[in-house]
Automatic annotation (TrEMBL), chain A:
Keywords, comma-separated and alphabetical: Membrane, Transmembrane, Transmembrane helix
Upper lineage: Bacteria, Bacillati, Actinomycetota, Actinomycetes, Streptosporangiales
Protein name: Uncharacterized protein
Annotated TM spans: 20-41, 47-66
Superkingdom field: Bacteria
Automatic annotation (TrEMBL), chain B:
Origin superkingdom: Bacteria
Protein name per the record: COG4280 domain-containing protein
Transmembrane spans: 6-32, 39-62, 68-86, 127-153, 159-178, 190-207, 227-244
Organism: Microtetraspora fusca
Keyword Membrane recorded: yes
Key words of the record: Membrane, Transmembrane, Transmembrane helix
Keyword presence, Membrane: yes
Length: 68, 263
């Protein structure tokens, strides 16, 4: 059990790090981009939307970080 | 070598260099305070585990995963690492977080090592072994992902591995000669640059990888192909500079953020 906990803790540290908001921002931006893809947008439109969403969600996560 | 290959080698070198410097600081702190035998045993065990992880991950990624899913998985991880680095770089550059200092990190690690209880197994100090193992393995896995992404993106894995290996050898030699943390390295500037690179390559790959969910299952194409990576680097740089300029104004006046030193 201790080993499993240690293993899970290692991967949490590795992926989430010391700010969970970054991982959440990335997942949310990619999920929305997937929505754009599945809605039938062209690859180029979806790619640009993905880039813009990633930038936007990053800004929001850092601003929340500073204001809290 | 072409300019693109030099760029690839330089990128993997810079990204890996920062990771190796951090691993060296941890191992040095354990070696000096708890004994070199345990610190080196932890490092060696981490290198063995890292080799096994790289072989298993490399085999699984190249054999079982379609290209687009590989791009999504590795790109997302790289994006998260890159944006974490970029966040810290932005907060440091805007004065909202203390600059990372290897000397300070070393002092923190040695203080923790001196306070930790001594428990031995097979003549190896458990604390030094575990901390060294975790430090080297954690930083090493990040290097593996950087090498995979940069190497596959440029279709030149040997150059990517070469850049990372050169960084590892250089840090190791510097550690052997100096026997102290490499505090003179402009680590904050390096991390800023590497954060921009990782965020850009990660965004490029992760978005391309979303094509795995389409009927064809093929990667999405960015307009402009590989040139989109340069556009992404420019966008992340621009947005980070805007944040550096305006974030201090957004900080609530009543609270004082305590400068915090982070990895």
């Amino acid at each position: 059990m201790k080993l499993i906990k240690g293993f899970a803790h290692f991967w949490y540290d590795f992926i989430i790090g010391d700010d969970w908001k970054i991982a959440a921002a990335v997942v949310a931006a990619l999920a929305l981009t997937l929505g754009v893809v599945l809605a039938g947008a062209t690859a180029a439109t979806a790619a640009i939307a993905g880039g813009v969403l990633l930038l936007l969600f990053f800004v929001v996560s850092v601003v929340i970080d500073v204001r809290s | 070598m072409t300019g693109a290959t030099w760029g690839l080698v330089a990128s993997t070198f810079a990204a890996s260099f920062v990771e190796f410097v951090e691993a060296l600081t941890i191992v040095l702190a354990m070696g000096v305070t708890r004994g070199w035998r345990s610190a080196l045993a932890g490092t060696l065990a981490a290198l063995v585990a890292l080799t096994a992880f790289t072989a298993a991950a490399g085999y699984a990624l190249s054999t079982w995963l379609p290209e687009s899913l590989l791009q999504l998985v590795v790109g997302t991880l790289l994006l998260i690492f890159g944006l974490q680095w970029l966040r810290k770089a932005v907060l440091r550059s805007s004065g909202l977080k203390a600059m990372h200092d290897e000397e300070e990190e070393y002092a923190t690690q040695t203080a923790a090592a001196r306070q930790a209880a001594r428990q031995s197994r097979f003549g190896i100090d458990t604390f030094a072994f575990v901390v060294s193992f975790k430090g080297v393995f954690l930083e090493g896995v990040e290097v593996v992902f950087v090498v995979i992404t940069f190497g596959l993106s440029a279709a030149n894995m040997p150059a990517a591995i070469g850049g990372a290996a050169a960084a590892g050898i250089l840090v190791l030699l510097a550690g052997l000669i100096l026997h102290r943390p490499l505090a003179a390295i402009p680590e904050n500037a390096l991390k800023y640059g590497v954060g921009l690179l990782l965020a850009s390559f990660g965004a490029y790959w992760a978005v391309e990888g979303l094509g795995v969910f389409t009927h064809s299952g093929e990667s999405l194409e960015w307009p402009g192909g590989d040139w989109a990576i340069l556009a992404l680097i420019a966008c992340w740089l621009l947005i980070s500079r805007v944040l550096v300029r305006y974030l201090p104004r957004l900080k609530p006046q009543s609270t004082h953020l305590k400068p915090e030193t982070v990895r």
